[in-house]
Design a protein that fits this description.
97 residues; 40% helix; two-stranded antiparallel ribbon
């Protein structure tokens, strides 16, 4: 969690939610992007997003590594998001080139 809320401007974008799982209701930490913000790029094709993620890196590490860790941890919890997996596959393919 420290990676996401290291910068003060994103603290209000973190919420605890109740979610339904096979094991019953659980609390989950949610991060969201305000669609009214000027730093959000809307509706880019997934290959373009993957291209940018494969090259993006900041003080907390690379976006490719962060995406991989996110997908792996979700999978370990039995959560498989097809869009994140597709994005992960595109980023991995881009990095292999």
């Amino acid at each position: 969690m420290l990676r996401e809320i290291h910068y003060g401007e994103v603290v209000d974008m973190v919420r605890w939610l109740w979610v339904r799982t096979r094991a019953g209701s659980r609390r989950a930490l949610s991060f969201w992007a305000d669609v009214k913000g000027d730093r959000l790029v809307k509706r880019l094709p997934l290959p373009e997003v993957a291209f940018m993620l494969a090259r993006a890196c900041g003080p907390a590490g690379s976006c490719a590594e962060y995406l991989h860790n996110t997908v792996a941890h979700l999978e370990a919890e039995g959560i498989r998001d097809r869009n994140l997996w597709r994005l992960q596959a595109l980023v991995a393919e881009d990095l292999r080139q």
